[in-house]
Structure formats: structure tokens, C-alpha cells
Amino acid sequence: MPRLDPADIGRPLSVGEVAQRAGVAVSALHFYEARGLIHSVRNEGNQRRYTRDVLRRVAVIKVAQRIGISLEDIGAAIASLPEGRTPNARDWARLSKGWQQELDARIAHLQALRDQLDDCIGCGCLSLGACKLRNPLDSLSEEGPGPRRIVKE
User: The HTH merR-type domain covers which part of the protein (predicted)?
Assistant: First the structure.
């Protein structure tokens, strides 16, 4: 890998350079920008240029997406970061702490589903009185026939 010339440290990055360095597609950067997750400026040729802090911001976005955080929640978290400053370890600690409760709740929900899976025959009727997964105590039967969901996904 070629070494970075110290004179290039403050040079804005093209969309292709950011995509290559961040390991994402150019279209992903355009999408993130359209959602307000990252920002660019336009040069004289109307091409996007990014400051280097965008590399860390994209890393934060990708990690958050990988653990299942919604883009809406990622956007709120990114909005809390100072513009033009690279997110640091303190920023990440604050952001990730805010996401831990959501992850813990999802983990508990998945563990409960796993533990109840043996009781399900996967028939899809959703009206059996014994169905602990989707219709505990057959509470949905009062709403009429057909499949109904208790848990919104």
C-alpha cells in the first residue's frame, strides 16, 4: 500500500477514495449522504469531496448496521457528534452504551423464542390455545378467524 504523503493529510477525499478506504460501495456513500449520515462538499467540477472524519463516521455506521441498529437510530446518534471532528473512543462509548439496552432486549426476545421453539410445530394457524410463541392463551381468537400477530416486527 502506498504511503500517504504528509502534504495530503488535509486534502479532501473523492467519493471513490472514501469508498475504497471504508470498504463500501460508492452507492452506499450516496445513500448515507442522502439520509444525512455523512456530508460532502462539491468542488469546482461539482464532484463530491469528503473530509477524512467521514472514514470514522462510515465505520461507526457499518458497525451499528452490523449489530442491527436501524438507520434512523444511527442517524440520531451521528447527529449528536460534532461536525468535522473525527468520532473518538469517548464518542463511541456513549453511542454504544445507548444501543446496549436495545441489543439486550433483542437478545432476551430471541432467547425466549429459542426456548419456546420446541413447542411450535410451525403450522401457521396462530390460533392454537397452546401456542406460546404467537398467541399465548389463544387471546387472538376474540378478534376473529385467521392469522394475527401479537408482536409487531
Answer: 12-80
